Amino acid sequence: MESNEVLKAIRDRRSIFKYKDEDVSAEDIETILEAGRWAPSYANIQPWNFVVVRDPETKKKLFEISRRITLFREGIEQAPVIIIVAVDQEADPNHFVEAGAVASQNMALAAHSIGLSSYWVGVFDINSEKDSAEKDVIKTLELGDDARVISLLPVGKPDQTRTSERKDLEDIVIEE
Ligand SMILES: Cc1cc2nc3c(=O)[nH]c(=O)nc-3n(C[C@H](O)[C@H](O)[C@H](O)COP(=O)(O)O)c2cc1C
Fold it and tell me: Is residue 166 assigned to a domain?
């Protein structure tokens, strides 16, 4: 397969759960947010907000919420920054999930490309149950009534290496 920087970043990005006790600069966070901003969205509606959390108390609250729905991971509290990808479901009722997802992946790839790491904490609750982790994130961050949360992305300098596997192309591609 041919390779270039984009393909290499796509191939080498891994979910990282342990971060070094080092800050991430505002400039690096802006680089990541810019990558989210340039994600595609249906009719270019851009129905997203990216919430940048550095406050330890808020990070702790997000950690307590997210551990209810996921395997216990230290990363969310350890990471110096958490970016929350929120979308306005009224702005684009049909495609708000995809919009938030592509913005999230753009940001994960951008973080990787500048030597940082993240992982996707999937709080989105398709049924929008009132006691869901997603609703609690919305309350914690005081997002509006129409807000939905697609991902929480802790961002920090990686303090572990991980490997991952994928299904073979021949098992997923259907040639018509
Ligand atoms: C929609 C979505 C939700 C995810 N939710 C979680 C999660 O809640 N907790 C977690 O540890 N990882 C979560 N992940 C990360 C996946 O577990 C990870 O991407 C997958 O195992 C492949 O590993 P890799 O990213 O290192 O290649 C999520 C990923 C996606 C795309």
Answer: no
